[in-house]
Each structure stands twice: as structure tokens, then as C-alpha cells.
Design a protein that fits this description.
single chain; Non-ribosomal Peptide Synthetase Peptidyl Carrier Protein, Chain A; 4 helices; mainly alpha; 101 residues
Length: 101
């Protein structure tokens, strides 16, 4: 599976060609890659990955791997516990994506 095209897509929320992701698109794509059917209302920014979305430790690791693959960086183990909500994961992704390669 090519995670880059699956996660980043080529269009923003308004359908314009873009490399940037909005929060909801990021969250939906991550949930899709994990094979989870999550109701749209569960994709709030403060949704806990562990408690609200009921991700187990393997799925939490998969979220990290998705972020690493699309940002083309390694997430340091010390940063992993910081990713507790969808917004945390999105902001971390945005931060990594904006850093010069």
C-alpha cells in the first residue's frame, strides 16, 4: 500500500489540489488505514486515541508508523507518549511535515 497517496491525498477539503491536509481529512485517513469504521462525531480534535477510539497498543504503533511514513522521519520514542489525541497526532504530523528535509 502506498501510504503517501492514501494519507495525504491530492485535494484539500474544498477539492482544491493541495499537499496540505486538514485535521478531519488526516483523522479520516488514519482511521481508514487502520481499518476502523469510526463515526464522524468520534473524530473530534480531543478524541483520545486510546479511550474514545479504543485503539490498542498495536494500533497506536500503527498511527506512529503512518506519521513516520508520510512525514519521512522517525518519531523518537520519547515523543510517542505525547500523541494521546487525534489533534496531538495531527499537530505532530504538521510539525514534522513543515521541517526542511
Amino acid at each position: 500500500m502506498n501510504m503517501d497517496s492514501d494519507i495525504t491525498g491530492q485535494y484539500d477539503d474544498e477539492g482544491a489540489r493541495s499537499g496540505a491536509l486538514g485535521f478531519h481529512r488526516f483523522a479520516e485517513r488514519v482511521m481508514h488505514l487502520l481499518g476502523l469504521q469510526v463515526a464522524a462525531n468520534a473524530l473530534s480534535q480531543d478524541a483520545s486515541l486510546q479511550f474514545d477510539l479504543a485503539l490498542d497498543s498495536f494500533q497506536m504503533l500503527q498511527v506512529i508508523l503512518v506519521i513516520e511514513a508520510i512525514a519521512d522521519v522517525a518519531v523518537p520514542p520519547a515523543d510517542m507518549p505525547k500523541l494521546t489525541t487525534l489533534l496531538d497526532a495531527f499537530e505532530y504530523f504538521e510539525q514534522l511535515s513543515s521541517q526542511p528535509g
